[in-house]
Specification:
mainly alpha; Rossmann fold; 6-stranded parallel β-sheet
Length: 572
């Protein structure tokens, strides 16, 4: 079969299998790999017997993939990451890799590769950015505290992977002189690329900004130029592509470059995963059992890493469980590392096949796990509590007792359960119009960033999970006269407004309960269950707009703006 024919049949098969994967709510990457397996000579139909031709094309996808990853690593922003993200990101990979080194030594010994144990330890410590970001985005969880910690850890995983890739070419001969030479070559390439990015590329990119086509071609030229120089200097071309992306990641044009290159990248990366599928060996019972065991280890290792880390940070078990579930799969980057390792002769085909099968298993399991991450994490937190383990890791609850009271002689009877943007807006409104009202508020939330804002506002707050009755009791909800849940079920995780209503009624019968609904039907259900008032954001917005539009006065919009937020929307 000609190269063009092999590419054509690969793309068609990948599209068909990707559609099936999408229909089954599975990651598209599974469809690409399975299509390669079906076309390949080992477990498939033998349509493509010459894997070399596809591999040559797929290497372009690998270079573009690493270029995009580099573009998405904004070092200045990374340095500004919060303590929770920084500590979690720095510790997760070493802990998981160390556990894998201890647990998978026997498996690596049977595979036969010189560095199988090391590669398996690295590969199983990293999680899939493609799968996690897609599923969290679909669930609108990227902005939650657990979502941000998950994304931060994924970024740090990329940095750990970059560090390993920089060492790969010299693993067989780790002599100090060679390492120093490689380090010097890498730093020299990074410095040269950074100087060009500082003094030459900004003007060039400004000139190209008016031509999307020129922006695309020039960005790819920059990527392959640095990759070629890296290969010439004794580094890997993949390392060069990463450097090319990192040094221009802070450019104002980086988002445009990503959007332009991504389409080209996706075409070639599809062939990369198809080529991986072509290499899948016929599944034997021992290999399948090892893959299932590997999948179980990957999932358990995430919990074994995240619970101690969150204990050190003083965060709760439920959030630790959510992050662990989110990270419970093997990364596509691990396939990249193993692909490079096979090419360098570092690892055996058996170990590479094991990682590939484990990725398939963990991807399927993770798809369903992330969809139910909060329910699973809440169940695990409750199980730990029943076993006598603390629900609050690191004494976070005890810290609440030590916090200044902000004047406990004031009656604090207005409880906010989950502080949404609307809750913060309410507090800011009190700041402007009724500062004394803030002294009545008690807020319960498990987002440390939100709690820092509440601290600045002088609002009494408790770090807690509002789905846990003990959290509400600890906050003193029995003294509440008004309880407000300003978050709709669409954004609540692990509970619902109806469940909150039942919990609050079980703790205090006299309080007025204000809840939030997504629809009119949902509001009717909450009223029927005993809610005193139900917020429907869409209905409130419609009512406000109606009042503006029904006022024929030419100053209607000005008056509405002044009534809404005069400090923020004062005419310039």
């Amino acid at each position: 079969m000609t190269l063009l024919g092999a590419i054509s049949i690969s793309i068609v098969a990948a599209a068909v299998l990707a559609l099936i994967a999408r229909r089954l709510a599975q990651p598209l990457i599974l469809g690409y790999i399975v299509s390669g397996a079906l076309l390949g000579p080992h477990v498939g139909l033998g349509v493509i017997t010459d894997e070399t031709s596809i591999e040559l094309i797929s290497e372009i996808g690998l270079i573009l993939l690493l270029f995009i990853i580099g573009l998405e690593i904004n070092l200045p922003r990374l340095l500004q990451a919060g303590r929770s993200i920084t500590v979690s990101g720095l510790l997760q990979v070493p802990i998981c890799a160390g556990l894998a080194w201890l647990a998978l030594g026997g498996v690596a010994a049977t595979a036969g590769g010189a560095f199988d144990r090391l590669y398996l330890a690295v590969a199983t410590s990293m999680s899939s950015t493609l799968i996690v970001v897609k599923l969290l985005s679909d669930k609108f969880e990227l902005g939650t505290f657990g979502g941000r910690v998950t994304l931060g850890i994924l970024v740090f995983q990329d940095l750990w992977a970059i560090a390993f890739i920089s060492l790969q070419p010299n693993l067989q001969n780790l002599q100090p002189a060679l390492l120093i030479r490689s380090l010097a070559a890498g730093l020299g390439l990074l410095a040269a690329a950074a100087l060009l990015a500082r003094f030459v590329l900004p003007g060039l990119f400004r000139f190209m900004a008016t031509s999307p086509e020129l922006m695309l071609v020039s960005s790819m030229a920059w990527c392959f130029l640095v990759a070629a120089v890296a290969a010439r200097a004794g580094l890997s071309a993949a390392m060069g592509a990463l450097i090319a992306g990192v040094v221009i990641a802070s450019f104002p044009y980086s988002i445009e470059v990503v959007s332009r290159v991504s389409g080209v990248r996706d075409f070639f990366i599809t062939l990369f995963f198809v080529a991986l599928g072509l290499k899948i060996p016929e599944p034997s019972l021992p290999l399948l059992l090892m893959a299932l065991g590997g999948a179980a280890f990957v999932i358990l290792s995430r919990f074994a890493a995240m619970y101690p880390i969150f204990a050190f940070l003083g965060l709760d078990t439920r959030t630790a469980g959510v992050v662990a579930i989110n990270l419970g799969q093997i990364s596509e980057f691990s396939l990249v590392i193993f692909s490079l390792g096979v090419g360098l002769g570092h690892v055996s085909r058996t170990a590479a096949s094991l990682v590939l099968y484990t990725l398939l298993v963990t991807s399927v399991l993770s798809t369903y796990g992330i969809l139910r991450n909060h329910a699973l994490a809440s169940w695990l937190a409750g199980l730990m509590e029943r076993m006598g383990l603390p629900r609050w890791l690191g004494g976070a609850a005890a810290q609440q007792e030590e916090r200044p009271s902000h004047g406990r002689d004031t009656v604090r009877d207005l409880f906010l359960l989950g502080v949404s943007r609307e809750g913060l807006a309410l507090i800011e409104h009190f700041d402007r119009h009724a500062p004394a009202m803030k002294q009545r508020i008690v807020a319960v939330d498990f987002n440390p960033e939100t709690l820092e804002i509440l601290e600045r506002h002088g609002v009494e707050h408790y770090y807690g999970d509002i789905s846990n009755v003990e959290s509400l009791r600890h906050a003193g909800i029995e003294r509440a006269s008004i309880v407000i849940s300003g978050i709709s079920d669409w954004f609540l995780k692990g509970t619902s407004n109806l469940q909150l209503l039942h919990e609050v009624r079980g703790l205090t019968r006299s309080a007025k309960v204000v809840l939030t609904a997504d629809t009119l039907e949902g509001a009717k259900q909450l009223y029927a269950a005993g809610a005193d008032y139900v917020l429907i954001p869409q209905a409130l917005t419609a009512e406000h707009l109606y009042r503006i539009f029904s006022d024929n006065s030419p100053n209607a919009l000005t008056r509405a703006r002044q009534l809404q937020t005069p400090d923020l929307f004062r005419p310039s």
